[in-house]
Amino acid sequence: MLSRRHMLQAMAASALAAGEAKANPASLEFGPPAPFSHEALKERAKALAAQPYQPPPRPNPDIVQKLDYDAHGKLHFRYEYALWGDGGGAYPITFQHVGKYFPKTVRMYSVIHGEAREILYRPEYFTIPPTSPAAALPKDASAFAGLWVMEARDGPDWKALEPWVTFLGASYFRAVGELGQVGMSARGAAITPGGQGPEEFPDFVAHWIEPAATDDDPVILHSLLDSPSLAGAYRFALHRTKGVVMDVEADLHPRTPIERLGIAPLTSMFWYSQTAKPTAIDWRPAVHDSDGLALWTRAGEHILRPLNNPPRTTLSSFLDENPRGFGLLQRDRNFDHYQDGVKYQKRPSTWVEPLGDWG
Question: Which of 4, 73, 90, 268 would staple 184 via disulfide (CB 3.0–4.6 Å)?
Answer without folding.
Answer: 268
